[in-house]
Amino acid sequence: MLDIESLHASVGGTEILKGLNLAVNAGEVHAIMGPNGSGKSTLANVLAGRDDYSVTSGSVAFHGKDLLDLEPEERARAGLFLAFQYPVEIPGVNNTYLLRAALNAVREARGEPELSAVEFMKIAREKMKSMQMDPGFLNRGVNEGFSGGEKKRNEVFQMSVLEPSLCVLDETDSGLDIDALKIVAEGVNALRDPSRAFVMVTHYQRLLDYIEPDFVHVLAGGRIIRSGDKSLALELEARGYDWVLEEAAA
Amino acid sequence: MSVEQIIDALKPVGGGIDVSKALAALSSHGFPARKSERWKYTRSEPFATFAAASLSSDSAHSTDTDAILRDWKSETDASAIAVFVGGVFDDQRSNLPDGIAIQAIDVAPSIGSESDAADALVWLNTAAANGRYQISAENIVEPTLHCLHLPAGEYSLAQTRIHLTIAPEARLSVVDHVLDGGVSASMQTLITTADIGREAQLDHVRLQHAAAAGLVYTRFDADIASAAICRTLTLDSGGSLVRNDLNLRLNADCAEAHLNGIYLANDRQHIDNHTQVDHVSPNTISRENYRGILRDRSRSVFNGKVLVHEGADGTDSAQSNATLLLSDHAEIDTKPELEIYADDVKCAHGATVGQLDQTSLFYLQSRGIDRAMATQLLTYAFCREIISDISDDEVRRLADSAIAAEIPNFTGLEAIA
User: Fold this and answer.
1) Average pLDDT rounded to a whole number, residues B396-415
2) Do A102 and B362 make contact, defined as CB atoms within 8 angstroms?
3) Percent of chain B at pLDDT above 90?
4) I need a surface site. Which of A220, A238, B112, B266 has the fewest CB within 10 A?
């Protein structure tokens, strides 16, 4: 589904990703871990097409298409979803409107008919309930006045409505208390499906107690320096990152 | 010379003592020059030239008032309407709310200076208003009174003076619609003075969409008594040269003023908002929030003066002005001006100028919204905040439409939060 080859990317002239390779197949959950500043969030943002990041070389294929050639909105319509580390508050733009416009844009790209307001509300209410969100949120501005935890829940809620084929989660666990973390993890787990893949960027092993990954990768210095299964995450939790970095340097 | 032409045209008309005084002031001081601090960024000559030309010629009445009214009414369910054509109140075409009368008066309360040329447009209005009226609210007036101001014809000058008296504990809501009246060029001056009694409330909204080559001068001066509230919204989208002077005086304990403004300019439009809030008495409150979107080679001026008088302790004032510059050639000159002669006051102010927030843009795009639509949504949302707490649904809807109409190809009205 996703093939990243020798990806180099920089921000403001500083190279952050330095030849990253990663292959993700449908049905898989990949966790990307690594020390601060290793390029985890850069990877998530580059995949979603944020224009502060420039790709200097390498390629990313998504469903066989050149992902890097697409605008952010085209990537979303092609089935890629980025759950933001810091979801943006947009007062004045209604949550319901944004989500319905987003869903209809995705549906149009999939060749499905547009949903009426009534049909949309039915889906939205159902999914909100499973995310234990206050239905009143729908009538507010996008993320307006939401707490950190509510914003993260809203991201996963949006994801569950849009049903993307590739979910990229950027530090979705950061700033969540344990109850909120469980709700978010349940939301993600409910979306696990043989046709869907996840790339989860996280600093802590904690999230992986609730969302079990198929693969764990250590990102350091802009490259994946070690890959393994979920036991690697436990080992990192117990021993920190230094030993991996040392082994990679050796 | 424009001023001499104006005097020559007006002298034979005559009038009361206020008219002679205004003519004398105009004759000795003329229109403000660039060195006048209050007119530093805005040219007054176009007003003088237009007025001189218009006053010394007979412009034909060409406005099809009935057709314009029909169109206007088809877009709204506003029921209380006062029509002013060429500055003159048209009783026949109006439908006033219960308890409201619009009475012609000979002399309007005087405002401004008699020697500072910065007030030349006030003198012009005083000397040559087409109509002077008094509107009194004795109790809670419903519904909102929509005043429609139309020019009488192409290249015409329309001048109106309105004095509002809001009795203690009374309430009035007025919307001034400054319309183009189907002409391409006109000049309109609209001066409103208001006396707001103890515990009374006045909501004053002005939706200005004058002719594309229109000149607009408005002035709103209010005296606000104890525990009374004055809320203003100035929304400018029309006209080529627009100057609004807004002066609110908080004269007694716990008086409150809320000043909101939106300016939406493109091409070479020039919109100038000068506001002044006088905190005369202790424990008075003012909140001011002006936002604008400038495109093309448009230019805007914001000057927000807050004057806290001696003894006005416990003053609580906040002011904010934010402008989006959507073109490299657009320009805003923004200036907060605080003069404080009391202790124990809270006065906050802030001005920002910038482009759309790139992270918000990316967020919307990452949800499948294309960039053009995302840009429109954010532009719209930027102004939307100002009008979201207008309590009259129809007034809010009209203000909404006025904003949406200024965003090219905007179809996202349902996006309102």
Assistant:
1) 81
2) no
3) 86
4) A238
Collapsed DSSP state (helix, strand, coil) of residue A169: strand
Phi and psi of B408, rounded to 5°?
A: -55, 135
* Both tokens assigned to B151: 């020019």
**Are B415 and A97 inside 8 Å of each other by CB?**
yes
Helix (H, G, I), strand (E, B) or coil at B318: strand
Contact A48 B414 (CB under 8 A): no
Q: Which of A71, A25, A60 is nearest to A197 (CA)?
A: A25
CA B38 vs CA B117, B215, B274, B304, B341: distances in Å? 10, 18, 8, 11, 22
Q: What is the DSSP string of B191-227?
A: EEEEEE-TT-EEEEEEEEE--TT-EEEEEEEEEE-TT
Nearest to A88 among B363, B371, B415 (CB): B363
CA distance B405 to chain A (A): 17
In angstroms, the separation between the Cα of residue A241 and the nearest Cα of chain B is 31
Query: Which residues in A lie closer than 8 A to residue B377 (C-beta atoms)?
Result: 93
Residues in chain A: 250
Of the partner residues A82, A94, A144, the one whose CB lies closest to the CB of residue B366:
A82
The number of beta carbons lying within 10 Å of the beta carbon of residue A212 is 14
Output the pLDDT for position B410.
76
User: Which of B133-137, B151-155, B169-173, B218-222 has the lowest average pLDDT?
Assistant: B151-155
Q: Mean pLDDT, chain B, as a whole number?
A: 94
Nearest beta carbon to residue B417 from set A52, A75, A94: A94
CA distance A161 to A100: 9
- Contact residues, chain B, for A87 at CB < 8 Å: 363
Q: How distant is the Cα of A48 from the closest Cα of chain B, in angstroms?
A: 7
Q: Are B382 and A91 in contact (CB under 8 A)?
A: no
Would you call B247 helix, strand, or coil by DSSP? strand
**pTM for the structure as a whole:** 0.86
Tokens representing A191 are 């979306």
Residue in A48, A88, A93 nearest the CB of B377: A93
Q: Sort B344 into a burial class: Cβ within 10 Å, 0-12 / 13-18 / 19+.
A: exposed
As for the ipTM of the complex, it is: 0.95
Distance from CA of B321 to the nearest CA of A (A): 17
The residues, any chain, with a CB within 8 Å of residue B107's CB and separated by 6 or more, are: B16, B17, B18, B132
- Give me A23's structure tokens: 């292959």
Residue B417's pLDDT band (cuts 50, 70, 90): very low
pLDDT digits (tens, 9 = 90+) for A66-121: 999 999 999 999 999 999 999 999 988 888 889 998 999 999 999 999 988 899 99
Can you point out the beta strands (E) in chain A?
2-11, 14-24, 29-33, 53-62, 65-66, 80-83, 90-94, 141-142, 166-170, 197-201, 215-220, 223-228
Between B233 and A52, the more confident residue is: B233
Q: How far is CA B219 from CA B111, B210, B352, in A?
A: 10, 16, 25
